[in-house]
Give the backbone structure.
Amino acid sequence: MRIVFSGVTPTAVKAAQMMIEEGHEVVIIEWNKERIDEISEDLDCSFLHGNAGEPAVLQQAAPDECDFIFCLTDNDHTNIITSLLGRSMGFKKTVTCIHDEDLLPLCDELGLENVIVPDRTVSQYLDNWVKGLDTVELSTLLRGGARFFSFVAEEDEKDKVDELQLPDKSKVLYYYRNDEFFFAEDDTTLQEGDEVVILTSSEHLKELRERWHPKGAENIE
């Protein structure tokens, strides 16, 4: 695969090193020439000096030939802009890293499906360990276009689960009520404020987004 990284951050460098060792072709885009010089001798990959948020720079990475672009700079807004550009310019898949969770609704409205929030991910791992739980990577379980989608039920959505009229290949799995977890049954009646989690197909995400405004929806392959 041909994989592009935007930003020379510790995460990007480590991930690039792993992917190079696995035989993938890696390109790193970085605006700071000194940072490129610092790592160029340690990584057997290509480098582009410039701002990945500029179309002319991104075009040099040959988007049509790339499988991924990982937007991992320290600036959330730059990562979002680069992801949007990457998607429009032909990258097969874009992955957006943000540190401010308040930007999650914006990412969802923009249709950015693969969003990483590092602090939240690490916090969840730590919480699972404290609880004595084994953390399972969802990416190994969700394949073939499967996605998670969540929304918060409003006043006019006090329906039973089987009355939600979901698209094909979609099912309510569970919900949170007052921060407590419950499995959903067909006859479960939703209440205002319930956070509802649906397993669906990626082809239905746009339809679901137009119907609901999800709260931090997780879309994972």
Summary: The chain has a mean pLDDT of 86. The domain at 136-211 is CATH 3.30.70.1450 (Alpha-Beta Plaits).
